[in-house]
Every structure is written in C-alpha cells, then in structure tokens.
Amino acid sequence: MEEKLSSVAKNFTPSPIQELSHLAQRCNAINLAEGFPDFPAPLQIKDVAVSAINSDFNQYRHVQGICDHLAAAMKKMHDLDVNPLTDIAICCGQTEAFAAAIFAVIDTGDEVVLFDPSYETYEGCITMAGGVPVYVALDPPQWTFCPGKLLKSFTGRTKAIVLNSPHNPTGKVFSKEELEVIAEACCRWDCLAITDEVYEHITFNDKKHISLASLPGMQKRTIITSSLSKTFSVTGWRIGWAIAPAFAASAIRNIHVKITDSAPAPFQEAALTALTSPPEYFEGLKKEYEFKRDFIAKVLTSIGFQIHFKPQGSIFLFAELPKDCLLSDVEYVKELIKEAGVVAVPGCGFFHKKLSMEPLSEASCNYQKRYVRFAFCKSIATLAAAAQKLSDLKNATRYEHS
Ligand SMILES: Cc1ncc(COP(=O)(O)O)c(C=O)c1O
Predict the structure, then answer these.
(1) pLDDT for 270-292, tens place per residue?
(2) Which of 169, 235, 300, 397 has minimal CB crowding within 10 Å?
(3) The domain 2-41+280-394 belongs to what CATH superfamily?
C-alpha cells in the first residue's frame, strides 16, 4: 500500500539531524547536534505551567495577554506599532508559524528567495506549498552575500524572501547595511519577507538584532516568526507566533486553526510569565551563551578546527574541518560518533547546489563538505565532557587526518 502515499510524503525523508540524534542516543554519545538545551528551563515559568495544569487549563485556548506583551515588546525592541488584536497569530512554535505563513502566501510556482546555507525546514514548507526555492549564497568564511547576486535572484515570479537572523547554522547576525539591501530588493520587486527571529535574544558582544520589519517600507510586507523555544529553553512546549500586517496575520490564524486549532493551553499561560521576564533575564541569557560559545570555540580550535567566523548570535558554531583533514563533513561526523562519542551535524545538510546565479560545479562547492555544526546550548558539564572526549580523540592514532 506504500504507493498510496502522496508525492510530498514520498519525497520527504527523515531529517539527517534527527537521524544523527537517534544514532547518538543509541551510542550514548554527547549530543552537540540538535539545537535544544539539556539544562532546566527557568523555575518561575515551569511553576506557572504546573499551576496552569493543576488549575485545569485543559481546553483549546487563546491567551490574548501573549499578543499584548508581544506588541509592547515589538515597540520597545524595534519601534514597531503592532495591533495586538489583529496582527498576531499564536502558533505551535516558530515551525508552525512559518509553515502557516508559507501556506498563507505561496501559490504553485511562486519563487521564494532564501540564503544558502539555511535551516532545513524552510525548503520543505515551501515545496509543500508548491513554491520554488531560489538560493543565494552566503559566501564563506564570513558568510557575506553579494548584493548584485541577491538583486538578480528576484524576478517577476518572486513572492517572498526568507530571512533568518541570527542565523542557523552560521551564527551570523545580518547587519543594518545588509538588511538595507534586502529591503531594497523587496520594495523594488514588491515582495513579502518572512523572517525567522527565534534567536532574537541571543546575540553576542556588541551585535544587536535588527528586525527586517523595522526598515523603511518593510513592516507592511514582513511576517515575523519567532517563539519561546530558544529564549526560554523550552523547545518542547511548542509556543510560537507570527507578527504580521492584519491581512497576513488573519490568514495565518485561519490556517493555524485548521491545522492545530490552538497552542498548548498550560504553556500559553507560562508564556505570559516568560515574556514579562526582567531585562536581567535576557542579559544573563546572552552572557551565558557567550561564555559557552567561547568555550566550545577554544576546544574546537585546540583540535585543529578552523574558526574564521565566531558566531555573533544563535546557539551554533559552524566550524571548518582541520586544514589537513581529508575526510568529508559526513565522514568526519561518523568518526566523531564512533571514536569520540560526540555527535555534531555535517554542514552539507544546510547547503544547496542549485544556487540562483551560478549552479555550483563539483569543484566550486567543495566548501559545502567542509563544515560541521556544533550546538553549544548545553550545560557546562556536557560541554566539558565533550571537550574531554574531543581532546582524547586528538591523540588517538586511528584518527589521523592525512
Ligand atoms: C532557525 C530556527 N528556526 C526555528 C527553529 C524551531 O523553532 P520552534 O521550536 O519554535 O519551532 C529552530 C530550531 O532549531 C531554528 O534553529
């Protein structure tokens, strides 16, 4: 009966990240692959969730207070005027908000511009909606893009651009100047922008997250998606949102209601508390992750990884394989699991060969097999254990690079 599956289902395979995570579990390896914390969520928000369950918040629910807080936060962070009654849809994580946004605006044949490398779920949603992904390279080692190439990747068929900043997998935070180029392209071609801002509160040093929606002419054409997942270490709670002009927010809400009806009721209650956390919480989050970024960067450098670009935000470090390493990223990660008991993600899963301006030849896309993504959203104990295993590995004879 397998032939009864839809063509979409036939084309989808399990995410390589999930597969590696399962392998890591089977091998009892330290998981630096998936982007979820292994440390507890803040006590005060857990208490609210528990108390909501005990108070029988068990039914379908829309907590308007979340929208009110988000609207106030958008004003404070980005000087955006958001109507909490019409411009926000609460969804099950950024993942559902993004999918609903794509289904709200993409018709068969519509082109969607994305940067390469990119987070793997975007393409799946776009193709499910019948859209055509068009990739523009972020060039290593600094992950910059060529403004000319970006502008040329827009056509009369372009419906939207997807922007993820702070960026998974590179940790890049797009600068004001880069956002201006993207905004110019959107305005010139009268396109929408769908942003993924899940790492909005995780930026390092003097880097500040700027929402594309805050640039002139952009709010009316931007759908912001984000969530509680990363900021509050609750990826399993599935609370996220889309913030958009009323026409788009209403379409997203309609789609959300048909797919999941509402986000988990007790966790919506807890979200209210989370979103009103004091400024010290957000400062502490940045500092803690900055420390962990520096820690993992030092460990990886000491075993030969080349770190040309230190993450400016997010919870990932995208490191280039040691110069003398002849293994591909996939081979390296398999060795890492077997020999060191540590799992990370081969970078090739984030790259695409069909870039809009110049389909890459085998030789010119060699860099796509040279990166490994390490998630540092782990406890210090986990990171220290991984550091120990990696330095043991460095000395192992079977693991010579050449
Ligand atoms: C860039 C990016 N967007 C979205 C998500 C998932 O967000 P959520 O848990 O809110 O669905 C992730 C998780 O790793 C991510 O890295």
Answers:
(1) 999 999 999 999 999 999 999 99
(2) 397
(3) Aspartate Aminotransferase, domain 1 (3.90.1150.10)
* Span 178-225, pLDDT tens digits: 999 999 999 999 999 999 999 999 999 989 999 999 999 999 999 999
Predicted local confidence at residue 34, as pLDDT = 87
Whether ligand 1 lies within 6 angstroms of the CB of 166 is answered as no
* Residue 241 near residue 226 (C-beta atoms within 8 A): yes
Residues 6+ apart with CB under 8 A from 224: 74, 195, 197, 211, 213, 242, 243, 244
Quick one: which of 359, 363, 367 has its CA closest to 149? 359
Cα(96) to centroid(ligand 1), Å: 10
Q: What is the rounded CA–CA span in Å between residue 228 and residue 178? A: 26
Alpha carbon 94 to chain centroid distance? 9
Q: Find out whether the beta carbon of 95 lies less than 6 Å from any atom of ligand 1.
A: yes
pTM, two decimals, is 0.95
- The answer to whether residues 357 and 364 touch, using CB atoms and an 8 Å cutoff, is no
User: What 3-state class would DSSP assign to 107?
Assistant: coil
Is the CB of 227 inside a 6 Å radius of any atom of ligand 1? yes
Count of CB atoms situated within 10 Å of the CB of 170? 28
**57-275: what fold?**
Aspartate Aminotransferase; domain 2 (3.40.640)
| Poorest-pLDDT segment among 26-30, 255-259, 340-344 | 26-30
Domain boundaries, the chain: 2-41+280-394, 57-275
pLDDT one-digit tens code per residue, 3-26: 999 988 888 877 666 677 777 788
CB of 165 closer than 6 angstroms to any ligand 1 atom:
no
Give me the DSSP letters along 261-318.
SS--HHHHHHHHHHHT--HHHHHHHHHHHHHHHHHHHHHHHHTT-B-SS--SBSSEEE
Mean model confidence pLDDT for the chain = 93
The protein residue with its alpha carbon nearest to ligand 1, atom 14, reads 35
Phi, psi of 296 (to 5 degrees): -70, -35
Which tokens hold the place of 15? 């995410």
